[in-house]
Design goal:
Nuclear Transport Factor 2, Chain: A
């Protein structure tokens, strides 16, 4: 009986540890760069978008390769809806940092309102960042659409 109780406690304890992934301050700093980039998209702010990206950023979206000009065109210039609103929620899966580079994998859910219609979109994304002048910047972003409703 004691062995069963110990086994139950061990399983419960290990499940709690897996559910609570703690990130270091450095990892959180990298993650915040990702959050800032998407806040810039939400605010249709090309200046902040560029500030959180390298000049030669590459985005792999919907089977296409985009650069910063494409992103600004599609997400800001052509996005003229007066009622536009985008709220992003992140579930960071893994963040690996090095001295001047980092990889981040996360689930992104965005609730987007445009022209009176609301849509929820979910992606699985991986980004590669580099440190330039003591600031993390996105260099590559690969996005896989999971669900659109």
């Amino acid at each position: 009986m004691k062995k069963i109780i110990i086994l139950i406690i061990a399983i419960s304890f290990s499940a709690c540890l897996q559910a609570q992934q703690l990130f270091t301050a450095r990892q959180q700093e990298v993650q915040q760069t990702v959050v800032h980039l998407f806040n810039a998209l939400s605010n249709r702010d090309s200046v902040s978008l560029k500030a959180n990206s390298t000049a030669d950023i590459s985005l792999y979206e919907y089977g296409q390769v985009w650069n910063m000009d494409t992103l600004i065109l599609k997400a800001i210039t052509l996005n003229t809806a007066i009622d536009f609103k985008r709220t992003n929620t992140f579930d960071f899966i893994n963040t690996t940092t090095d001295k001047n580079s980092a990889w981040v994998t996360y689930r992104l859910q965005s609730v987007i309102t445009r022209d009176g219609k609301q849509a929820t979109v979910q992606w699985l994304e991986t980004v590669f960042l580099i440190k330039q002048k003591k600031q993390w910047k996105l260099k590559y972003l690969h996005s896989t659409l999971i669900k659109r409703s």
